[in-house]
Amino acid sequence: MHTSDWARVTESDDRILIETDRLEAAIPKKNPKRWMTGIEKESFRDKATGFHEVGDGLMVIDWLMEAGSDEEYADRLSAPDGEGVGRYTWYENETDPERREYALMAHGSSHRKRMIEGPQLCHRMKPVQPELIPGADFLAVKTTYCYEYAAPGRNAGSRWTQLIVFPKGERFFVLMDRIDSVNDSPEMFLRNDTPGCVRHVRGDTFSEMYLSYLSGPNGVRIPSSEFFHPFPPDRKFGYRRDLNRVPERFIRAYHLRDPKTGAAGPWLAGLTLEPSVVYEAWCSQRPGDIIVMIEEIHGRPIKAGESFSAAHIVGFFDTIDEMNEVFDRYKGNTALTVDENGWRLAG
User: What is the value of pTM for the model shown?
Assistant: First the structure.
């Protein structure tokens, strides 16, 4: 246990529980029934209002991927544990209507992609031992993991590093995802959820969505009623760097509300501090009352031995203006470092 005048850390076999003067959060170590990366499901709580995240966790991580089709080697895709490896073109020739419809709703049809390395870390990762780095006015947690298998002709072993910093006095955390690659790729990207998915029944847990990068410089506010029926990622509310102008800010947020009383809560927002690192992003309603907020970072050529990263801020905000103010304070950064003396963002 680590205790100071403003923060407390309690560690168990399953997770690291963090309580600061403004927030509560849990970082998973092993828990097969919940997501295994980022902030554990429903554990991120705002002390000022009592509201918490309403999805499946924050900043959860999937595969390493690239543009292209896996059709030529699809029959040779397998994982050591027997689980699926995340095929994204299997439904092109799929004859089962239900499976085809679900895949189109989950992934769309306009931009083919394939896995380079797996597993899907968020729920197939083996137990980890995150490192706690305490400071006088912050707490940091560092988690690393190497991908275990790869598509035919590719290497396994790229290292994912996630570094999370909880600053004293703030209702947000700062986070970096970094990949050290063991493969060459013309367009490698890492898929995550920024800030995270939203579970709801006809908008009972949120009233509106805010996307800063659509519909002009002020972004767009989308009522929850737009998410009452499923639609695929490429139908609406999508962003692609090759088709859109890189925006000044990249902010994705949902406005919480109490599902029992309807009372408004704070916004829960994810800020990607350098907009140009976003390769593709979408905010789509899948069957089953879940909005996915997928974000893919990098999407550029890389050689084995090289790395890429993205830096984010995730937390609770009372207004969109407050989100913009925090974004502008830290904008332009893609990397995060920390030691006992402090934490630093870098471009």
Answer: 0.94
Which has the closest alpha carbon to 326: 316, 336, 339, 338? Answer: 316
Q: Which two tokens stand for residue 114?
A: 């394939």
Query: Exposure string (b/e) for 150-181, b if CB count within 10 Å is 16 or more?
Result: bbeebbbebebbbbbbbbbebbbbbbbbbbbb
The count of domains in the chain is: 1
Contact by Cβ (8 Å): 271, 313: yes
- Looking at residue 34, what is its pLDDT? 66
Report residue 151 as tokens: 């598509």
Domain residues for 328? 2-66+118-336
Chain-centre distance of CA 18, in angstroms?
20
Q: Summarize the confidence of residues 258-285 as an average pLDDT.
A: 97
- 8, part of any domain: yes
Residue 108 domain flag? no
Residue 254 scores a pLDDT above 90 = yes
Q: Assign residue 45 the CATH number of its domain.
A: 2.70.98
